[in-house]
Amino acid sequence: MRRHILACLAGYCVLSIYQTNLTSTAFAADTPLDIDDYVVIEDFATSTLDSLPSGWSWRGKDNDKPKLYAVRETNGQRYLAAQDTGLSVALFKRANWNPQNYPIMTWCWRANDLPLGADERYTETNDSAAGVYVMVSKTFLLGIPRMIKYAWSTTLAKGTTGRRKGIGRPWVIVLESGPEKLGQWIFEEIDLARDHKLTFKRDLPNKIIAIAVLTDANQTRSYAEAAYADFRAWPKTALGHIPNYCASLASE
Questions:
Q1: Do 164 and 14 contact (CB within 8 A), yes or no?
Q2: pLDDT tens digit string along 40-50?
Q3: Is this prediction's pTM over 0.85?
Q4: What is the CATH number of domain 8-18+36-250?
């Protein structure tokens, strides 16, 4: 059962979710999962070590800023190391999978340092140690991408969902919170179809525009550090049954 409450306070709309269940009831217990039936969104395997990831870009306004991202490797598995000292540079990659066929998204991430006092509800503290953005469609009139941001928040509770008022603001869904799991590789599994319906009140389109990552600490004038690895998309029937493939990273 899912219940939700929408409240708008100080320019921020919060949709608090209770009793969220990620287990798919449509998956029969005796139906084997095809572990090879997934789309590799990004595993950084073709990128040069100690460099920016190939195929990723940034906003024009960030052209002259240092990009504090670099591809690293541990135990034969690549990942993207990220940090921010106040520059707030997001990296984007165009996507090419059909989320109606593959609506489940997974990845590994790790937060090492949280931006002090960050709180995604307010502009003046809107920083996240780690953020994964999914751009799902564009508005009809303005052509602005509709975005969902999955965040590792310094202060907001896990499960908090909300959006600051303003044109083009992403919906923020907090997957991890606080310092308890700092330094640990965490496996994340999300249902894009469910989250898109919950936030934008409509079904997913048949194409994802792009994904993005952002580790930022500019608003709090502090420091943030994180890492990202192995983004994949899966069919609906895989929900709740995908093995944690972040194990090799965890032994770093």
A1: no
A2: 999 999 999 99
A3: yes
A4: 2.60.120.260
